Amino acid sequence: MNVLIYNGPGTSPKSVKACHASLTALLTPRYAIRSINAETLIQEPWQASTVLLVMPGGRDLPYCEALNGPGNSRIASYLRNGGQYLGLCAGAYYASARVEFEAGDAQLEVTGDRELKFFRGTCRGCAFPGFMYNSEHGARAATLTGSIAENVRIYYNGGGIFVDAEQVPDVQVLARYADTDVQVTGGNVAVVQIPVGKGSALLSGVHPEIALGTLDADKLPGEDLEKLETARLLFLGRLLERLGLKVNATAAERPTLSTLHLCASTAEQHQACLSLLSSLADGDTITGEHDTFQLLASPSDRPVDASDEDDLDAQRKYLSLSASPPVLPSFDLERYFSSLARYTGSQTSLGSKLLYGETVTSSQTLLDKNFKLLSNLPHGFVLLCAHQLSGRGRGGNAWVSPPGVLSFSMIMHHPSKASHTLVFMQYLISLATVEAIRDLSSLEVHIKWPNDIYVKLPAGFAVPEQAPAFVQGENKFVKVSGSLVSTTYWQDTFMMIVGVGINVLNPEPTVALNTVLEHLGSDKRIDMETLLARLLAVLEHYHAAMLQEGSFRSLADRYYQRWLHHDQPVTLEETGQQGRVVGIDLQHGTLLVDVGRGERVGLQADGNSFDMMKGLIRLKRS
């Protein structure tokens, strides 16, 4: 599940960066922390996979210019349907019914009504004097007191008060400014929470995301910064808990990217990959379009990292070419390669060559955004990891992959002469995932169009509140897997990057396959290595069959056996048309909906989303 931090016109780089750092410390690896821009917020299907939307500090007028209308409508709908909103300083002004900022100051004044109106009153500022844009001149350590804080000091720069908050319906006051020099009228309320439909908005005039150590030293004379930092993180953690998130007992350490290990099923294949990677290097460095890779003869050659670069994408990636990789803590290479050989009868199949990294940024991004690698690595090459820090999903969404989630991306080549079947690859991947899980267990897993896998839950199974789940008839289902396909055309070939994430072992914050097996009383358990090998073997078989036939037709019946949408009544949200799902168009790959009077609507998978709880299909915006 995602925690999205808005990063668009008007946002403060300092606040955005601090949000990433603080939320990563408090929430990973349970949640994926990532940015979302205005275009994605307005156009992409982010809501169902998001537990929290954060509007950071900055200037709220540009927020209005970018999001008024469709953007705000989406935010409000997200909260009404159970989403959570955290507004910090400008993000709190923005979510109030009215803003009154430095009224009467010709240089600074911003006043006016706002669309979201989560706080149905006025946010008035600045609470304290001295504010200047793009400056720390008015920044200070404000002291807060209240139900979740007792004399805690939090970074402040330009925030407001929530005027007469006690008189505004449904508002819960969480903290007040304890400092006596509040310069505006209307009280001293600094932090509030308001229910919005099934969700809520928590608005703060202060910046709990920013460490007080960033203030000028003369503003904190003689203070114990370590003690202040501990108190800040505790305060922010309490805010997040009020929004329904599960917070780490102790702040997680800053994530460190692991060494990538080159692995192959045979010595000959390892040598071929080693030679290929070496040929791409200038000395010992491959400079990709997005990442820089330093080649190592062995893992022990990696230097002690001296970089304090916060941007993980900008950090150098280390790639060991050793033919004898170390014992990996989360993946048994011997079991994997023996399983792959057993299922395929081949040593040159999909997945016979791979890079493994315990912790990476995003397996999909490392391939997709580094064309030098993508255009040279062979068909079937896999990038596998135990933990992704910024994994990518459909529509710009992320999947977080803590230990226990099988996360990989694989290069597949698809001939241009078979371009008409390319659209069916996402269906092949979903079908292969379902069949692999069913082959290894008794679990009833199914496909939710277009690319999600859901498991049927046994009676009495308690679903975590944040798990993507729905009820169909008497049955309850929860999401356990998702996939993504990105495609580049190069030298008469479609080069696909197939990304898959499957929750095998980790029970938080959703549901793991083995947790369901345990609840069923089954003696079977699924291991990562066998599941990956089986999935790749099935996918290779399906891909070859589709290419030979030149059609998805021979696989369609099996696909329909595994999906959740047979004859399902639906409503097209944008038009209000009602209809029923009748299948997949075997020529164009679209979802076919019969809307009556002989009319059928074909929906592309890219951009449309299926709300199973409501029977709604949200149409892609052009």
Summarize the structure in short.
Residues 339-547 form the BPL/LPL catalytic domain. This protein has 622 residues and is an alpha/beta fold.
Largest sheet: 12 strands, mixed
Mean pLDDT: 91
Beginning-to-end CA distance, first to last residue: 26 Å
Architecture per CATH nomenclature, i.e. the level-2 architecture of the largest domain:
3-Layer(aba) Sandwich
Multimeric status of the protein: single chain
GO molecular function: biotin--[biotin carboxyl-carrier protein] ligase activity
Domain BPL/LPL catalytic: 339-547
Pfam family, one: BPL_LplA_LipB
Protein name: Biotin-protein ligase
Folded structure, characterized:
The longest helix has 22 residues, at 528-549. The protein folds into three domains: 2-242, 3-Layer(aba) Sandwich (Rossmann fold), CATH 3.40.50; 334-561, Bira Bifunctional Protein, Domain 2 (BirA Bifunctional Protein, domain 2, 2-Layer Sandwich), CATH 3.30.930.10; 566-618. The chain has 622 residues and is of the alpha/beta class. Helix 11 (425-440) packs across helix 14 (553-562).
Give keywords:
twelve-stranded mixed sheet; 3 domains; 14 helices; 622 residues; Rossmann fold; biotin--[biotin carboxyl-carrier protein] ligase activity
Tell me the layout of helices and strands.
Layout: E1 2-6, H1 13-27, E2 32-36, H2 38-43, E3 50-55, H3 60-67, H4 70-80, E4 84-88, H5 90-94, E5 96-101, E6 110-113, E7 119-125, E8 140-146, E9 149-156, E10 161-162, E11 172-177, E12 189-196, E13 199-204, H6 225-242, E14 260-264, H7 267-280, E15 285-287, E16 292-296, E17 317-320, H8 333-344, E18 353-360, H9 363-368, H10 371-374, E19 381-388, E20 405-415, H11 425-440, E21 445-448, E22 452-456, E23 469-472, E24 475-490, E25 493-503, H12 513-520, H13 528-549, H14 553-562, E26 569-572, E27 578-584, E28 591-596, E29 599-603, E30 609-611, E31 616-618
Parallel strand pairs: 1-2, 1-3, 3-4, 4-13, 5-7, 14-17, 16-17, 18-19, 26-31
Antiparallel strand pairs: 5-6, 7-10, 8-9, 8-11, 11-12, 12-13, 14-18, 15-16, 19-20, 20-25, 21-22, 22-24, 23-24, 24-25, 26-27, 27-28, 28-29, 30-31
